[in-house]
């Protein structure tokens, strides 16, 4: 903290921050780069201390004039961060709940697991931070914080203090960052490549001296020219390695760029000494070649990582930038992101729909393959929902805006993809931990190698130590799991399978038992009223109107069968929805019930193969309804897959009708448990999970508890919001065979992770002993290290196919 110090140089008559005269009766100061700087007032002192605490002391190195008094005391970097706290700016990229906010940030400078660990460790110290997870593959970080205790600007400032620049993830900025990084690598790579070719020419001449002899002045001349050519390579091309190494050292952590930097600087200093003192060996060609190959590996790795993150980027690119707004019978073209809920837009045939909304007028086919992975257009008419990014194929539509861009289905898909990275699988946690300690072990090994070879062959000690430092590759170990998981998640998203939890890809290939809900899962849930039987002196239409009025508070698919037939609205009070049982309300001072036989106290239920529900008023049965539903085409296929894979199947439903046995028989399911409450479903699941790995598939409110309790749970996108929030996986579309795709992808992912870890561990176990014993020349060591991580990333990219 800034304090008044007695040892401050009294000759400092002007404020270091604003340049105004320092009052003689005050002694305000801030320690900047180890020196106490005088300030004129508490305001300058506070601002300067904030700049220092935010890691922005470089402001004082590069400023062209002193700061002004007042609002402009704070440098531009900090005022820009403060802007991120404004509500209207956060609307575009911050998801908010009652007290918590969540954001996905793009972070510059992440190179390995050590960077992720450092960022997470430092930011977790902030009061109010609830969650943080860094994705080393995508260079993104997901952060959740308490709005009342912490500001976004404070999070970004802390990130800069650690040494990383971060800003909200937006596709345009992400593309600009990639282009900037790629150009930077290409410039450094170009310089290193040109210098390497030139230095190698002189190196060949120097090596030729071993066989033919060469005059001393030529040897010294070639060495000095090599020294001059290698210097810009070391100072410019290799700069990213030093920056990352210094960041790690400053924050007291170990990263893979530390041994690389030690090797490069050690080789350069030793070669420079040999050149100036005209004694010993020079390694300028090795320095240039090391840098060139390391940069080439980083560039290829950057492109591979970009490939892995393309799916979410491509989804965002599908959104049109402009929309045709209809106001007072006039059409105007406006930016799509300025649309508000309730506005009406026109989407012509062939155009992409810019927002999530509801069709007001028009009938058309909508191409939704970018969401569901199913390429057949979907026929939609009035009151049908449509989604941003889908294509209106045949006819013009007028659409009412229902959701803003940040709450659209595409935004949810991308958010789910990022959320899937939040909970790291156990295997990834272990790999990250091992890779962090690996660097420390490497430095100790290199030191022991140098000491040992000083006794065996002093001339070779430095050269062999260099090989040990460069050959080993902790980066491949830390990339083995996250790159595979990221690629697998991206591929599944393309096929309409949204992963919410990363453990899914670890657990789903261990599944021994699949449990299915019936209505809306194995069946379409598009109920049709087949027959109405009256049991009292009530008209058929009144019974239908009463049932429809009750169903208005329910999200169950049964409600659709009645809502379309209702004619008159009826006043009901104290309406209660009891999931898995039915609905009840007060009508004419009596209790009105609609539900299955047990809920309505029907002792002699109708004998029907269809679903039957009953309507009672008081103790009197007034009507019964038979409802028809059809099986999904994919239900038979998923059942056959389970049989072929020796996976047990159970139909677990709240329906007590004979329809349950009929569905189980048609699908050849192993077990049927019907007429169970949501609590009963959960108890049944727990009993199964005591001995087996279980996957649960459901869609309704009554499935929420059992979905939340299953080892792996799957919900359909057509299901209730409660079910989707409780599930680990969401299937877009109606194809249940996507569960098969999920399982096969999970199995392939597990195989590739094992291959990646096997390669990373095997490579290091082989290369380290060879390097220590002097069998790996430095140029072979750098090639091995660069391509080791590249092989891991390239192997993971197979999951995108």
TrEMBL record:
It comes from Psychromonas marina. It holds the Pfam family HMA. InterPro entries: ATPase-cat-bd, ATPase_P-typ_cyto_dom_N, ATPase_P-typ_P_site, ATPase_P-typ_TM_dom_sf, ATPase_P-typ_transduc_dom_A_sf, ATPase_P-type_domA, HAD-like_sf, HAD_sf. SUPFAM superfamilies: Calcium ATPase, transduction domain A, Calcium ATPase, transmembrane domain M, HAD-like, HMA, heavy metal-associated domain. Signal peptide: none annotated. Belongs to the cation transport ATPase (P-type) (TC 3.A.3) family. Type IB subfamily. Keywords: ATP-binding, Cell membrane, Ion transport, Magnesium, Membrane, Metal-binding, Nucleotide-binding, Phosphoprotein, Translocase, Transmembrane, Transmembrane helix, Transport. It comes from the Bacteria. Residues 101-167 form the HMA domain. Gene3D superfamilies: 3.30.70.100, Calcium-transporting ATPase, cytoplasmic domain N, Calcium-transporting ATPase, cytoplasmic transduction domain A, HAD superfamily/HAD-like. Its main location: membrane. The chain crosses the membrane at residues 189-212, 218-237, 258-276, 282-300, 437-456, 462-485, 757-773, 779-800. This is Copper-translocating P-type ATPase. It is a multi-pass membrane protein.
């Amino acid at each position: 903290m800034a304090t008044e110090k007695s040892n401050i140089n009294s000759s400092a008559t002007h404020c270091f921050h604003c340049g105004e005269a320092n009052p003689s009766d005050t002694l305000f100061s801030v320690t900047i780069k180890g020196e106490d700087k005088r300030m004129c007032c508490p305001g300058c002192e506070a601002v300067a201390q904030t700049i220092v605490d935010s890691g922005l002391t470089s402001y004082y190195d590069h400023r062209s004039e002193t700061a002004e008094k007042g609002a402009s005391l704070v440098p531009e970097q900090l005022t820009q961060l403060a802007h991120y706290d404004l509500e209207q700016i956060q609307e575009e990229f911050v998801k908010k709940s009652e007290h918590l906010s969540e954001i996905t940030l793009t972070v510059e400078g992440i190179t390995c697991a050590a960077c992720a660990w450092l960022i997470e460790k430092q930011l977790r110290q902030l009061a109010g931070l609830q969650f943080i997870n860094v994705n080393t593959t995508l260079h993104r970080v997901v952060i959740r914080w308490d709005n009342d205790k912490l500001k976004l600007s404070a999070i970004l400032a802390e990130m800069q203090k650690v040494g990383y620049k971060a800003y909200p993830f937006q596709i345009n900025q992400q593309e600009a960052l990639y282009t900037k990084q790629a150009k930077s690598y290409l410039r450094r790579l170009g310089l290193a490549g040109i210098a390497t070719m030139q230095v190698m020419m002189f190196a060949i001449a120097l090596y030729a001296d071993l066989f033919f002899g060469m005059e001393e002045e030529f040897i010294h001349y070639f060495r000095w020219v090599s020294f001059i050519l290698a210097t810009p390579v070391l100072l410019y091309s290799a700069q990213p390695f030093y920056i990352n190494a210094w960041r790690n050292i400053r924050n007291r952590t170990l990263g893979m760029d530390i041994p690389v930097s030690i090797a490069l600087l050690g080789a350069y200093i030793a070669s420079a000494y040999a050149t100036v003192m005209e004694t010993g060996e020079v390694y300028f060609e090795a320095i240039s070649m090391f840098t060139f190959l390391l940069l080439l590996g980083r560039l290829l790795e950057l492109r591979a990582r970009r490939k892995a993150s393309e799916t979410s980027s491509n989804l965002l690119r599908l959104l049109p930038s402009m929309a045709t707004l209809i106001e007072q019978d006039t059409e105007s073209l406006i930016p799509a992101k300025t649309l508000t809920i309730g506005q009406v837009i026109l989407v012509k045939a062939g155009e992409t729909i810019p927002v999530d909304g509801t069709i007001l007028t028009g009938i058309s086919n909508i191409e939704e393959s970018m969401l569901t992975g199913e390429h057949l257009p979907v026929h939609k008419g009035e009151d049908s929902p449509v989604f941003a990014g889908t294509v209106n194929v045949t006819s013009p539509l007028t659409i009412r805006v229902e959701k803003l861009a940040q709450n659209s289905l595409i935004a949810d898909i991308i958010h789910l993809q990022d959320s899937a990275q939040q909970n790291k699988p156990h295997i990834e946690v272990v790999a990250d931990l091992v890779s962090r300690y690996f660097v420390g072990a490497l430095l100790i090994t290199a030191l022991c190698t140098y000491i040992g070879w000083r006794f065996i062959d002093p001339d070779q000690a430095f050269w062999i130590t260099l090989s040990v430092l460069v050959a080993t590759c902790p980066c491949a170990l830390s990339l083995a799991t996250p790159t595979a998981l990221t690629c697998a998640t991206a591929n599944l998203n393309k096929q309409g399978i949204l992963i919410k939890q990363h453990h899914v890809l670890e657990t789903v290939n261990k599944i021994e038992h699949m449990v299915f809900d019936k209505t809306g899962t194995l069946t379409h849930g598009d109920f049709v009223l087949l027959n109405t039987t009256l049991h009292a002196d009530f008209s058929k239409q009144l019974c239908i109107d009463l049932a429809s009025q009750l169903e208005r508070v329910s999200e169950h698919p049964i409600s659709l069968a009645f809502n379309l037939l209702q004619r008159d609205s009826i006043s009901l009070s104290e309406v209660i929805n009891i999931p898995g049982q039915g609905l009840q309300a007060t009508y004419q001072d009596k209790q009105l019930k609609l539900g299955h036989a047990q809920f309505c106290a029907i002792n002699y239920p109708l004998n029907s193969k269809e679903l039957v529900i009953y309507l009672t008023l008081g103790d009197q049965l007034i009507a019964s309804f038979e409802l028809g539903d059809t099986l999904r085409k994919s239900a038979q296929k998923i059942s056959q897959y389970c049989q072929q894979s020796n996976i047990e199947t159970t139909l677990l439903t709240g329906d007590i009708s004979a329809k349950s046995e009929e569905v189980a028989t048609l699908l050849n399911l192993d077990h049927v448990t019907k007429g169970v409450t949501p609590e009963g479903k959960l108890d049944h699941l727990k009993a199964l999970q005591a001995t087996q790995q279980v996957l649960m598939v459901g869609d309704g409110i009554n499935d929420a508890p059992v979905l939340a309790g299953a080892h792996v749970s799957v919900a359909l996108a057509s299901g209730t919001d409660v079910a989707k929030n409780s599930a680990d996986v969401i299937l877009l579309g109606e194809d249940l065979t996507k569960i098969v795709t999920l399982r096969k992808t999970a199995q392939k992912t597990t195989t590739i992770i094992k291959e990646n870890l096997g390669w990373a561990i095997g490579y290091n176990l082989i290369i380290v002993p060879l390097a220590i014993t002097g069998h790996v020349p430095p140029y072979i060591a750098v090639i091995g290290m660069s391509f080791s991580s590249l092989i891991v990333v390239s192997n993971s990219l197979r999951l995108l196919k």
